[in-house]
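Anyone have tokens for Sulfurtransferase? Sequence:
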Amino acid sequence: MDDSVVVSPDWLASRLDDPTVRIVDVRDAWEFDGIGHLPGAVNVPFDSYRDESDVDRGTLPGAEAVAELLGNAGISPEDTIVAYDDTHGVFAARFVLTALEYGHDDVRLLDGDYSAWNREYETTSESPEVEPTDYEPDPLAPEESPLVNYDAVVDALERDAVFVDTRERDEFEEARLPGAVLFDWREVVDDETRRLKPKAELEALLADHGITPDREIVLYCNTARRISHTYVVLKALGYENVRFYEGSLTEWLANDGEIETGPISATEDA
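Reply: yep, here.
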């Protein structure tokens, strides 16, 4: 796995004293304070980097909000950010994508979560002293961003793109984009270790679903949270042509987009 995208607990543990490595805990404040957190971590709860005016879709919060969040967390644009949660990284992955979209060059996901870290390394209840910064975001230009909108998705349906639905089976069978492949985001996680499965196993698993590096891939779920995790994993595996449908199925249905419904056939499920 590419450690410029996903880092191991060992990688992070060896850099806890590095002032340029900033650890972000995206759990709720009560978890951060009451349960404990990684040494030196700052708390940026998941709800704080969602657009409050668009709760249903959970879209990005805007450059001004991100500048305030990262500035108040004492983060500078040149810092290396490592994000984690306690839900296999799905909420932290959303933070990773958010920071990348607003121009932070070096932001990574911790392989595993708080519980995985806690099995091997110490945690703390002490909050670090934070000196706020004047953070200036630099949002990606549309041609640089992996995010695609409704119209771009309509166009991609006419091409040989692989549409990957990262939700659960019952959601997929209730409504999905035409021709979509079901790939529950949790399939990449080892339930016992709470970390990602080995690289070779991940590559074989994805290939079994037709999700290969040579294809154009468009990810969607309901509110762009679960696809964040799959996006980060694919980038860590070296996939380059990966698109991220920010509006996901919520927007698609609101625009009366074409859908398929019903059970997966035995052939598709093989």
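Residues 147-269 form a domain with the Oxidized Rhodanese; domain 1 fold (CATH 3.40.250.10).
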